[in-house]
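Fig. S4 source data, part A: sequence.
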Amino acid sequence: MLIADSLTFEIGKRSLVKDISFSIRPGELLIILGANGAGKSSLFRLLSGEKMPTRGHIQLHGKEIAAYTVAELALKRGVLNQQNIVNMAFTVMEIVMMGRYPHYSNSPAVKDIEIAQQVMELTGVIDFADRSYLTLSGGEQQRVQLARVLAQIWDVPNALLLMDEPVASLDLQYQQQTLAIAKMLSKRGFMVVSILHDINLAGQYADRIIMLKNGRKWYDGTAAEVLSSKNIYDVFEINSDVYTNPRTLKHFFIPRNVSLNINSQ
């Protein structure tokens, strides 16, 4: 279980995260929504252990996240960042195998190689295994990074998967596939937390949605509970209509047209 208790994160006199509390259990996919500057990335860095809160606590499986060593934490949670800088011409297989580093000392076992191949199949990058990572498109690189993170936690019960804008550089097919993978992992008992900008994708895949504004948690609940025209306006300041797909019972929104008047001089 992941517990965030009264998290506050300040830089100087500016509060980027303000008194946020929530928990997530194994088997749950939580999606965090909010406009630019809402505090999503700062909250993500706190949850991953990259930053320590100014006030408040984070517990992972009953232990303060700050109490884990780097090696211990690598065996409990995987982090998919929005940007992953690689300057050397590693092959795709080498990048994905990096995810298995926490699981062996000198050389990978057969199991490690099998897991790497399995997650490359799942993410659709197996055909790139011998290619240089640097020759891939941005979307292809993002799928390789997803495979790397999946390889890291694939055989870890109740692992935590953190994903920061995982579909930002992907086309429609792989946006759906990536979130379908996240949903599948949650059904296998993983805890999955993902930051998204796309409200409709959140409504389609999330078990639970947290909506942030000005560093605070404004709404927390299922898509049916939080995706309303009023709440979307409160958080994003855009007028919209929210509907329920009668076939899937999933919620989706359609933004209303924005009219601008330009006065010529």
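Fig. S4 source data, part B ends here. The chain has two domains: 1-76+158-265, 84-155.
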